[in-house]
Design goal:
This protein is α+β, with helices and mostly antiparallel strands. It has a domain of about 100 residues: Jelly Rolls, CATH 2.60.120.10. The protein is about 15% helix and about 35% strand. The strands form 2 sheets. A 5-stranded antiparallel sheet has the order 1-2-8-3-6, with helices on one face. It has a 3-stranded antiparallel sheet with strand order 5-4-7, with no helix packed on it. The structure holds fe (ii) ion (FE2). Fe (ii) ion binds next to loops. The site of fe (ii) ion has 4 residues, from loops.
Length: about 160
């Protein structure tokens, strides 16, 4: 909890209703407005030429926090979240999210949209998506998952 307190302001942790039990939409709203300690976040920031990087900030029994660093052109695989749910907040740059539907064990694109600083993506337990830095400058995003991600199942593209 101490590590968390260093990262987030009271906006996420000090209100009467425990954030752990909030519906995902309400958690996303709180997550979007939490003040951040950039010095703590910097410890997990890493741009890697080989792949986007996910740096662990905190992992507890019920949740984990990750910081993702994206160079231009880097993308996640098409994935789900193995039963976890989460929220992703864009801190700098912009990311494109594509949502998919499951078809015969594959992923068929449904829609895509771009999100920038201050935006929050909801990742429900059944969300199937891909996130990409489709732009010309680096991007950084902060991810909160509950429970911690046990596995991200990867899906091939349909067709
Ligand atoms: Fe995801």
């Amino acid at each position: 909890m101490l590590d968390e307190m260093l990262i987030f302001s009271s906006a996420l942790f000090d209100e009467e209703e425990p954030w752990q039990s909030l519906p995902l939409d309400a958690l996303a709203s709180r997550f979007a407005h939490a003040r951040l300690d950039w010095r703590r976040l910097a410890s997990a920031l890493r741009f890697d030429l080989a792949s986007y990087h996910r740096g662990l900030l905190f992992r507890g029994v019920g949740h984990e926090l990750l910081l993702a660093s994206w160079l231009p052109g880097q993308a996640s695989p098409i994935h789900d979240h193995g039963g976890s749910e989460g929220v992703t907040r864009i801190l700098t740059g912009a990311l494109e999210e594509t949502r998919f539907e499951r078809v015969d064990g594959c992923a068929r694109p449904l829609c895509a949209h771009t999100v920038g600083p201050g935006s929050v993506l909801l990742e429900r337990s059944d969300t199937l998506h891909q996130v990409r830095n489709a732009f010309h400058r680096p991007a950084v995003s902060l991810h909160l998952y509950r429970p911690p991600l046990a596995e991200m199942r990867i899906y091939p593209l349909f067709g």
